[in-house]
TrEMBL record:
One of its GO terms (cellular component) is tRNA methyltransferase complex. Pathway: tRNA modification; N(7)-methylguanine-tRNA biosynthesis. This is tRNA (guanine-N(7)-)-methyltransferase. The keyword Methyltransferase applies. HAMAP family: tRNA_methyltr_TrmB (MF_01057). Gene3D superfamilies: Vaccinia Virus protein VP39. The gene is trmB.
Length: 245
């Protein structure tokens, strides 16, 4: 059985909130393009069973982390978690952190929601909304322990590269949300984009690269489907790790 987005939206209106602009406003450049998707029965059931507990709707107000998670553990935000395999593993292995996953694609969002709900990963919450708007409106400054950005869309064509997520304004926004000593951890299989990341973070005054270049692999990061595809094409996997001064 397959259910369309429109069917599930009737029950969970929060999942309609994917645009980052008000009605009638100019469309902002986003780092993603929404595509239609179909949900299987288990994905629909995941939303109905678990969204109220593990999902967070977008609001124009700052999150109170202790209220959301029931503890004062440091928060890590993952932007674009895809199918969520790395997210769930990291959340289980590094349970001393709370995790907020941001993903606009409904299929991946519901698949991770199913895992989080069935395994009762109480240190994970999920949002389906544009990351820039979430950071600006809901995340207090100087409050985030780390950001994970694994295999963001490289937008390889030159005319598309303005859509890349890692650019100077976004890097400054990330840095403003980090606590002192907090980190940004990016991974990509697109080498030219990896070098762009290094340059962008180098220009962000409050960030420092402790490796003076690419970082060594971090053992607690799981291999993702995008990474497997990159390796199959003999793409180098480059990791970038920077910290707030």
């Amino acid at each position: 059985m397959q259910v369309t987005q429109e069917t599930i939206f009737q029950d969970i209106p929060e999942l309609q909130w994917v645009e980052s602009r008000s009605e009638g406003a100019r469309r902002a450049i986003k780092s993603y393009v929404l595509r239609g998707s179909y949900l299987k029965t288990f994905q629909v059931e995941a939303v109905r069973r678990y969204y109220a507990t593990y999902g967070i709707p977008f609001r124009q107000e700052l999150l109170d982390y202790s209220q959301v998670y029931g503890n004062d553990n440091p928060l890590v935000i993952e932007i674009g978690f895809g199918m969520g395999t790395a997210t769930s593993r990291i959340a289980k292995e590094r349970s001393q952190f709370n995790y907020l996953g941001l993903e606009v694609f409904l299929s991946g969002f519901t698949k991770l929601l199913d895992v989080v709900g069935r395994e009762q990963l109480d240190n994970v919450r999920l949002m389906r909304f544009d990351a820039v708007e979430v950071l600006r409106s809901m995340i207090p400054d100087n409050s985030v322990a780390g950001f994970h950005i694994f295999f963001p869309d490289p937008w390889p064509k030159k005319r598309q590269q303005k859509r890349r997520l890692i650019q100077e304004p976004f890097a400054s926004l990330l840095a403003s949300k980090l606590v002192k000593g907090g980190y940004i951890y990016c991974v990509t299989d697109w080498e030219e984009y990896a070098y762009q990341m290094l340059e962008v973070f180098k220009k962000t005054e409050t960030l420092v690269n402790p490796h003076d270049g690419f970082a060594p692999p971090v053992p607690w990061r799981d291999t993702t489907r995008f990474e497997e595809k990159g390796l199959a094409k003999a793409h180098p996997i480059n990791e970038v790790w920077v910290e707030k001064r």
